[in-house]
Structure formats: C-alpha cells, structure tokens
Amino acid sequence: MVLSAVQATGAPREGEVRISLRDEGTWIGTRSRVYAVFNTLILANCAALGSASLLYIVNELASAEEGSAEIPRLAWVSLVFIPWSMCLVPLLVRSWKNPPGVELTSHGVNWNTARSWSRHSVDWAEIETVGVTVRRQKVSLICRLATGAVMEINQHGLRSDPKAVAAIVRFYLEHPEHRDALSDPEEALRQFQGTVL
C-alpha cells in the first residue's frame, strides 16, 4: 500500500490518503475552503435566479395593462429558488465549519458526515470495528461503535481511498502507544508506514 500526504484535488487513486493538520489532530477529508466555495456558488446561483425571476415578474406586472399580464410559468416556478437559497445558508455555515471527513486525535475520532452536517466525537474505546462498505459501486469508510451506531463517510467526502483510511484508523485503534503522533500528520503516516510495512 502506498500512502501519500497531498493537498491536490480530484479523485483519489488507490492507496492515496490526503491529510492535513486541523484543530488538534490529523485531518482526512474535504478541505473546508474548497467545500464552502462550492456551496457558496450554488447558493449564489439559486439566489440570483430567484431574484431575477422576481424582478422579471414585478416588471411585467408594472408595465402591463390591467388584466393583460402574461407571465411564463417558468418565472413563477423559479421563485422557489429564493426560499431554497435561504434554506441553504445554514448548510453553507455548517459546511464551512464541519466539512465531511475524519479527524484522528490522541483522544479519539471526530466524524463529520455530509448527511448530518454535524461533528460526532467518538473515544477510541467506543470504536468496535473499522472497515469499508460498497453501495451502488461507491466505497465508504464505516465505523461500528460499541453502542451499535454506525458512522459512514463516502470516498467523495474523504477525498482519499477509504480502504487506506480504514487501515490507518484500525492501526491507531489497535496501537494506542502511537497515538501521540496524530498531532503531526506526516509523523502519523510515518508511524503507520514504519509499523505496518
């Protein structure tokens, strides 16, 4: 297995892990700036389309004679984008704060899943198994907790090979003596590679 610490974008190759330092541990996942910029563009497009439709409707109603205004249905339908864009604002804030990914610390693992847009902190002692699952030809990292709960992050959220990430998480789960290295991402990979390879 070949692991590399890179910051590039694009689909990860097999065995590739993209890491960085975040808060107090090794971060594997989407970088908040990239994710937030993408969501900001979606929000801006929705707001612009809704606002343009609203202005078009107001202009048509103001310039038409009484009872003769014929406004295309598409203009009315696109007004939905205004409230939709307002609903996206909280998601934008949460995606900036908690992009999808995992953060490995000496105390445990912080999971940020794209579905819940929230951060779940799990102590190492709570983790039962770590592995991968395949659904609809998409590979995801899964973590089963002693409580029966399952945490799952897909390859798109991890921006890394889920199999390689599962191997790293499993290594630090089984070797608590090496967890201090997680405060330095490159040292964390060196410890993993030096022990496993």
Walkthrough of the structure:
The structure is a single chain. The protein is α+β, with helices and mostly antiparallel strands. The protein is 42% helix and 23% strand. The longest helix has 32 residues, at 32-63. The protein starts with 18 loop residues before the first strand and ends with a helix.
How are the SSEs ordered, and which strands pair?
Elements: E1 19-22, E2 25-29, H1 32-63, H2 73-77, H3 81-97, E3 101-104, E4 108-112, E5 119-123, E6 127-135, E7 138-145, E8 150-154, H4 155-158, H5 162-174, H6 185-196
Antiparallel strand pairs: 1-2, 2-3, 3-4, 4-5, 6-7, 7-8
Instruction: Report the sheet with the most strands, covering strand number, pairing sense and barrel closure.
Output: 5 strands, antiparallel
Q: Report helical residue fraction.
A: 40-55%
Cα(first) to Cα(last) distance is 8 Å
The topology string of helices and strands comes to EEHHHEEEEEEHHH
Order of strands, widest sheet: 1-2-3-4-5
Task: Please state the CA-atom Rg, rounded to the nearest Å.
Answer: 23 Å
Number of strands: 8
Content of β-strand: 15-25%
Structural class: alpha+beta
Task: Give the gist of this structure.
It is built from six helices and eight strands. It has 197 residues and is α+β, with helices and mostly antiparallel strands.
What are its keywords?
disordered N terminus; alpha+beta; 6 helices; 3-stranded antiparallel beta sheet; 197 residues
